[in-house]
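Entry for phenylalanine complex. Fields follow.
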Amino acid sequence: MSREHFSSRSTAVLAMAGSAIGLGNIWRFPYMVGENGGAAFILVYLLATLLLSLPIFFSESIIGRATHQGTIGAMKALAPGTAWRHMGLLTVLSPLIILSFYSVVGGWSVEYLLKSLTFDFQGATQEDLGAAFGGFISSTWGPLVCHTVFLSLCALIILAGVKKGIEQFSKYTMPLLFLLIVVIMVYSLSLPGASEGVKYLLKPDFSRLKASSVAAAMGQSFFSLSLGVGTILTYSSYIRTEENLLSSGVGTAAFDLGFALIAGFAVMPAVFAAGIAPGAGPGLLFETLPYIFSKMGMNLPWLSSLVAVLLFVTVLVAALTSAISMFEVGVTFLVEERGVKRSRATGLIFLGTWALGCLCSLSFGPLDGIRLFGKNIFGFCDALTANFLMTFGGLLFTLFVGWKMKKEQVRDEFTCGGQLRFSARIFPAVYFLIRWIAPAVILLIFVTNLLL
Ligand code: PHE
């Protein structure tokens, strides 16, 4: 059967960037930086991206492109009759757990879009805004309704088959989102007291790094690049055989990194200007942005409302494109592996993630008392996926390419049969990273984190 292909490298990079860029960059990165002490965390994050995430990215691309199939099919094709096919299960489970809490945060964005449409932030003080956010997420019904709206949107897009349409749409909204974040960053940097935030992001203080911060940096890098769950593998299966995997990997990682760093520089200076605690946790973005809009509103009320509305719309689109990429993995699995009808599969995935999402949402309010390893249900699902399941998935992908696949096949795939001169020249280093460095370091961090 002939398969569709991305028409060019830039389309492949854009599609992968669409999955990669999402709440991970805008919401999760700033709060992770804040919880883990600033610049030192960013340094570890950069190192993890270079030494661990890129090798995993290449591994997933190589498997996907070599077989032109999704995770389960690829494993069956490259390692028939082995236990590797069970990787498929991991790559279905992780995205669905991520989707549950992701949809709760998507729901918060829906609520904040509505708030900006009704000019809610104008004239409010930091105390008002902080209390409003805390009151909202700890209430029962509001966040549940918003979570339901967000997840229903995903399900509708998948059911109506307009996934392609939304991805096309995101091609236009992504640059707009980028531009808006740059505008917010410039404004945030101009606030009195912002320089403390800049220092926090640029001057590493390693004493602020917690023991768990290294694992958190690695997890954030994997989360942000959608690694270890088969998303990149599946997208790569659509890349043409003559395309350069090195540049699509580096291109996607560079986009993703740039977005995260700019989001950090948009949020953190305002955090310091407003006197918010950098370690405020998952609510950081939603306490900081309204403060920026309220300040902006004092001078330029119209511009502030316009930026607020556009920002939350574009954040929602970015969140939706990432969320759909997770939803689709589950649906494809049920359809292709279990013979379930597509509409029924969509319903089943919806119900499962909706129910777990409800528990995540309620864990900021009525279910706050339930603690798993010291975290509420939301925090537990987040850490379980980013710090363990994605890490484990990434480890298995590098082991598969480094040890199970034949070196010649890996080289052929990476260098297009030796035609790509630069890729061929750096192949030994890349292979060394995939075979030795990435698995060893991931394993080390993984085990230390378990013991801590
Ligand atoms: N990378 C996405 C983000 O940053 C999240 C994601 C994780 C998407 C795993 C797909 C798979 O928002």
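NOTE: The mean pLDDT is 93.
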